[in-house]
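Let us begin with a simple case.
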Amino acid sequence: MKIKVLLSAIFFILTAYSFSFAQNSEQPVSTALSVEDAVNLAKKNNISIAREEITLNGLKRADSHSWNSISPTVSLGAGSSIPVDALSDTKSNYTANLGVSATFSLSLSANLYTSMQSAKIAYESGKISFEDAVKSVELSVREAFYTLLYEKENITLQEQNLEIAKTQYSNNLAKYNQGRLSEIDVLSAEVNYKSKIPTVGSAKTTFLNDLASFKQLLSLPIDERIELSGSLDDLINLNEIKVDMKDVKSSDIKLLEYKIASAKNTVLDKRFSAFAPSLSASLNLRDQYWYTGYKGAEPEPEKSASISLSATIPLDGFLPWSARNDAVDSAKDTVKDLELQLDNEMKNLKRTVDSSLRSIRQSQESIQYKQANVELAKKTYEMTAEAYNRGTKDLLTLQDANASLLNAQVSLKNETLTLIKAVLNLENTIGVPFGTLGD
């Protein structure tokens, strides 16, 4: 009997363990993701970056092969001639030949230099554009990541607020059933509790929708489970942020500088087309063998070789009204226009940086005040709750204190997110690595 009981107990334990193990194994595993993990995934998988890399590789190839216009041209030819009457009359006297020829030609012009420079400038400019694309994706990832952290923490606050309202309703209902509280106080607590349920649901829906967009940005499967690691509080106490404009050169300014270099190269190219000579050389080889259809001495095979050199000097560039001269002047106008754009962009950069710094300082000051406000609201709520339990404060006062605490906490989180985004955008504007300012 004892053995049967013991076996039954062992069987029950093993069954329970197997069921528990099966349940645990079926639970989906979430992948923890920090902001740096998310950035690395985006750089590896993002489609926009992959497309920009293809473009950059094409510019690099064009730069490496920009000298290919000086490659020689080679042509080969072979020919034979036989009189028509020899085909119909085998007894006719005729002379026929078979020949092979080859021609090598090479052309040189001053525009080769500007062509090579143009490919080089385009490649260097392309590298800036590629870096811009990478930073743009990284900025989007970081902003989206911290926005999701804010939404996640906001859900936590809203759920805590909902739980407090639920507890108040439960306590009031118990007091009402004991005859210690009026029905109107119970109904007010119930309305306050149930009115917060849709707010929590809406916050969760917004979070899930934004999380799906975030996964798409990282090129992750939409149904993959991820868990964001980190907190907005980690970045709430940034150091004072300063920017030395002497060391700042945004990507827009760099691109304009390359545009100016390209425009100046175009001016030189137009001048070469208008004034510089072009050279060409060719070598022609011919070897022709003879054979005859009658008796007698065969003609000697003919061999020939010739070299030709030529130089072409354009003259219309010396005429002020010529089209080539106008092209040079138009290219100069483009350079002047781009230089004006560069000067304006440098002023715009200074204005943008100063404005960003003012916004960041204001946000940091607001955070300090809002931190103090959270502490005051928390203390006020605790004191009001104690007074309500003693019967010296009414339910409406308690609910107002709870709402003030929630608003203070949400406002602090929102201001922290505003500060983080402002710093990220400033780092992107001045072209420094993300995380440099305020570290």
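The second case is a distinct protein. As before, the sequence precedes its structure tokens.
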Amino acid sequence: MNQLHTPKASRNQDTGRESFIRSSIPAESGRPPLGCSAAPLPYCGAVLPPSALYVRQVPAFLAAASGVLSLLPRRGVALTVASAALLPALTAAPALAAVRADEKEKQPRPPAKMSTVGGERLGRAGTQVQLAPGAPKLPKKLTGRSWVVADAESGDVLAAHNAHWRLPPASTLKMLFADTVLPRIPKDHKHTVQPSDLAGMGEGSSLVGIKEKQTYSVHDLWLGVFLRSGNDAVHVLSALNGGTEKTVRDMQRHAIELNAQDTHVVSPDGYDAKGQFSSAYDLTLFARSGMQKPDFRAYCATATAKFPGEVKKSKKGKTKQETFAIQNTNRLLTGDFGLDPYKGIAGVKNGYTSHAGSTFTGVAQRGDRVLLVTVMNPSDGEHNEVYKETAALFDWGFKAAGKAEPVGRLVPPKGAGDELSTGGQGKGRGHAKASVAASDRNSGGVWAAAGITGGALAALGAAALLVHRRWPLPELVRRRSKD
């Protein structure tokens, strides 16, 4: 499967380098000739291409042409020339609309039957929501092929769209990788990278910039995974875990433990591979499981960090390792042009490949409520569309909480017991919270709540709340949610 390549950089928007991708589009792709404006004027000699890209520019074309018409002398020849200039736009509009409708018709459709893990309604195609009186309506502009809005603590799925549709996950699969491998290797362990560690990476992979024969701590490598979505960091950590093949088996085994039945792992980094898929429901399960781990929470909430660079020798013969700044590619955490950081956001992971499109799973808190939202492959090609749709679903979820009946639930891991995620079913929420509180006291299992330490991960704050199963999200997030 073809990847979206950028030289010496990334195949995906994880690295935030879309400017190169845009500049590399050839002239025949529909861009106007050099010297012409984005909305082609009659005197440019540009012809509107048969692409939906320019559908929105037809009004601008007409307006510009009308301006030219008003400036011309009112003579027959001049009017004929101006009328001829208008003809391409007038004839292009219905043709382009037809092309757009045809492209929409060719969009893949979800299977008629999908998994019913978490509830029968989650196995249905289309949008599933049950609004009580006074509940807000879902956002109008939602183009994701699949999405889920869930209460992270109760497990209630408030709304979903093709929740179990098996789709390419891109780098959001790194959540499963981290949830599987993170507890296995001490953070302070240091490793000198060998050429074999980096073997097998897909062409155009997103990279944090790991160098062969250079020594890194495991902590550094996880920063590379969570902040820069570095496939090089994933492969080095996989080598420390016993190799890529073993890591893939471990991830698949862990997915089964989490009841993520829509997921088939082929590559540990989410790079497009034949037969690799997941679903919005499963990605939400991975995020929920990962967020139980203090290190996972801390890494995915880190906005910026320093990463080891080259080791250089001074004139006196002393060696010094330089560092360079890296920023989290989660744009709801760090913001972007035209996109503010989302108040209360605390992670989790974004991804993009040309095959998977944009994918994202986020967790956010407002007051005492914590929500998880996953969006996969919005069909709207707008910049940052996956983040905009996620933010819209977060806004809806916080407003609809308590006013929307659950349409399903996030199931607990195998062996954890139904009381850990009742979703309004089973033994009830009071029993569930009591059971989790007892579990927290008596074991160090996957559902145990723990505080986050401050330090090198950025100003996350040391304070944490331990209220039943409520996650101790970074204090920075709590402050941000009140701004």
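The longest helix spans residues 76-105. The mean pLDDT is 75.
Keep these points in mind for the review questions at the end of the chapter.
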